[in-house]
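Lecture 7, part B: from sequences to assemblies.

Below are the input chains for today's worked example.
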Amino acid sequence: MSIFRWAAGRLGAAALVAWVVTTVVFFALRAAGGDPTEAILGGPGSQAGEDAVAQARSDYGLDRPLIVQYLVQMRRILTFQLGDSYARKQPVAELIGAQLGSTMLLAVCALALAWVIALSVATLATRAQGVLGRVVSGLVQAGEVTATVMPHFWLGAVLILVFSSTLGWFPATSVGASPAGLVLPVVTLAIPTAGFLGQVMRDGLDEAAASPFATTARARGASESRILWRHSLRHAALPAISLSGWSFGSLLSGAVVVESLFGRPGLGRLLLDATSTRDVPVVVGSVLVVALTYTVVTTMADGVERLVDPRPRGADRATDRTLRAEAAIV
Amino acid sequence: MSIDETLALDIRGLRVSFAGVGEVLRGVDLTVAPGECVAVVGESGSGKSVLVRSVLGLASEGGSTALVSADRFTVGRTDTRRLSARGWRALRGAGVGLVLQDALASLDPLRTIGAEVGETLALRKVPRAQRRERVLRALEAAGLDSPELRFVQRPGQLSGGMRQRALIASALVAAPPLLVLDEPTTALDATVAARVLDTLAALRDAGTALLLISHDLAAVAQIADRVVVLDDGAVVEHGPIARVLMAPEHPTTRRLVDAVPHGPKPGPAPALGPVMLSARGVSRTFPTPGGGHVRAVDNVDLDLRRGEVLGLVGESGSGKTTLARLLLAADLPDAGDITLDGEPWSGATHRGRLGRRHQVQLVPQDPLASFDPRFTAGRILREALARGRSTSSPAELLDAVRLPHSVLGRRPRSLSGGQRQRLAIARALALEPDVLVCDEPVSALDVTVQAEILDLLVGLQRSRALSMVFVSHDLAVVRRVCDTVLVMREGRVVERGPVEEVFAEPQHPFTRELLAARRSAGPALRRA
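Predicted structure of the full complex, as structure tokens:
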């Protein structure tokens, strides 16, 4: 497949994702009840009079049928206008722009840390041999599963309790852009991701070490550590890379929790606040930006995967088709 | 005992055991001299693979620790019994090289041929420029054309034969005096295998000692000087290849020799009925990466009569499997027409075919992949019976394929390769088909098991007046089972006729080449 067809396919997929996500969010927010006019007039529990409410409704077009409101929203998106926030009366693009950097920093640092943890644990665990090896591998596996299932809010609370309240090593809230304030939120986000990346990598390393090409390398006189670094690691990294794109999505959703837990500014906080006040333009805008970011990241993961695995695509797919056809007739 | 310096490999009383498994090798004696090729033959489970790994000091590979002891175990001048892990690593590659079966899995698919072949040298700190020079020479010595191109290619870009040659190059790049070859030609087409064996013979003549492991006597007969027969971890017979093949003494050896498919199909010619399956002008084209097209099947005509076994022979990529899939209607032709029992088959609607699917059944090469691993054998057969109108029971099907009733409660993974193939045949028979399409049904099996399955298929053909399409790259197997044969090349049928006629007087040069590749399988086997 040519690079152009690949790029066109990706762009098409991104557009489709953006459309589906904004549509779902738009209708879900309206179905959840609540009145957006309250956001316009100062938030839930607003004391505005009926005249003011009616005025706001017609000013913002909220008195028109829902489908018309939806089409208006879509037309805005198509012309790259995200509109103004109901509550803050600021352009949505400005609001998101101010918060995006903070969230991206958090998510990218968490993904990087998750890779460092997963790689170190997986490579160290495969080096232990014999009875020790079985014990280590059992412990590591238990640790990975535990890490994977830990909820962010619980993990974050524990980390604050230990490293902030008791030991006082790191601040529990992020003030300004201090690097120390970034530590606990990043660790909170990274640990569950590291758990499952580690499992994938360890499986990949074990599989590669047991493969005939590893036997061939041993027969050439290669040591186990050379086989690990020169052969197995690339094979183990491939599935972890493609999963990293996917896990970036869960990092962004985890950021919603972590940002409010640590009092960090960011897209997550913005989204959370906007949802509770039914600030439709902000919610739709943020979700759109998150979805597009996710598409960009998965595309990047795909590109990196192609760099690591230079084999031409297509052959495997043809085999898959054959196998499926065979399975169908048997 | 002193070290005999004239031997490349000298093993006396080798014992290898694993905790929980017991002794796998029980006092094996084995010597190989420079310029000699010694073959070790035996069935699966005889201890061949453990022997291969032990010679390289890799018996513990795969997790469970092996206990290795020997009265004598020297590779060249090195007494390996006192070797440290580091000493073994220095010996591997430079003192002894290894060539495994399946070269696709045995070369790292992510690395270039140059990096893979040069690894032995890189480990020994040979400077890069010199390394490239030596890798190119090794590729050439292994019989690869345009070595500069191969140097930058990856295993997936090479054909099976070229990959096997690259693997041989990777074993001989540091010029070890001893090469261990584990089934080096089993995965290859007959003509390609013959050429690879020629290359190995040239290495042997140049003074390299070869230790060749195989389950196939016909394959080793071509280049081995001596043969060692292994059974249940012990040497049961050894001697010059011609003597062992002509006058085998031990029952295991006799079984191995008898199992090598040779000679014409036994028994009378079948009584042929009307035409069951017929193809006229059938073609199938596939797009290739890069925008081109390949004609996998090109304008093929064939007629399969009731009670006839039709062989489809050719090398990988000749279109025989595609044609088999068209006959199964698993795939449809772009041009031409296939009829079943006189009625449209490829031309029928999907719904129209559905009611007649049971008439044509598949026996696959790898039955394990075609079973649901959670199903027991009994459930696999009951499901198949439920789809047909047959009144037979799973037990009767097992009798038909000569499997004990005890397998009913077992899952496919716990069955042996031969038992799985019998189960696949039983499943196909459950629908009482008129035609069986067998796609390389025995190519993954040991020779002795292969012979049993072939006998079973011929028996079924006779007792049930079954028609069969038998796809194979192995001419000896085809001659043993088929009544007529189509020789395919690049999608076209280049020769067709009754099997014995084609074998006696091949018309097409390609058929002659195929036959020559098989005939060179040793003078002893030609007598049959």
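Note for the exam: Chain A has two domains: 15-78, 92-329. Keep this in mind when comparing with the next example.
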